[in-house]
TrEMBL record:
Compositionally biased tracts (Basic and acidic residues): 28-38
Source organism, top-level taxon: Bacteria
Residues annotated as signal peptide: 1-21
UniProt-recorded name of the protein: Outer membrane protein beta-barrel domain-containing protein
Amino acid sequence: MNHIQKLLLLTALLSSSVAFGQLTEDPEDRRDQGKDPLKTQTVDGQPLPFSQRLRFGGGISGLRFGNPTSIGVSPVIGYQATEHLIVGVGGTYTYTRYKGITNTGATVPIETYNQYGGRGFVMYEALPAIIPNLYLHGEVESTTVQAKADQTGQTASYSLTAPLVGLTYSQPISRRFGVNLTALYNLNDNLIARSIYGSPFIIRIAFF
């Protein structure tokens, strides 16, 4: 076998190896080819397993120190239904405490709020060729607030179901994780909603 034949044989073997690697590689490896990783299928067109389409994360909300003191958490589970559609569910919990000053000048707790609820949401990437990673966002959130007067022990509770619509911009970090900035408008804006959200316009930052 002369040198030219050896060179052709080596080239054929290398080409076969590269082709096989492209068929079996993880979608994340598409970045080496200058392409974004696929979200719902492998390079050869096979659908990804259910577990590889799930996205986990959440965020911290309502973080305030002083008067009032407040902190909230909001875990999220999302599912990549198609290349451009994400559906998911999430939970919320926020603890808030207000303080007052007595006649003697002492600072004491006067009201404590426990706010919790859940939501279901849909995100659709409407114009991926023009504005990638910008999603139309719709969700329904149900919230319950339990209020307690710390000095008297009296309690009260109220609930609200709010349909929210708006936009989410997602900055991908990996195929199944990103930073999400969401701007929503509450279609059920009323006095109870104002006591929960403070405004019909809601801004969130979440990681999933």
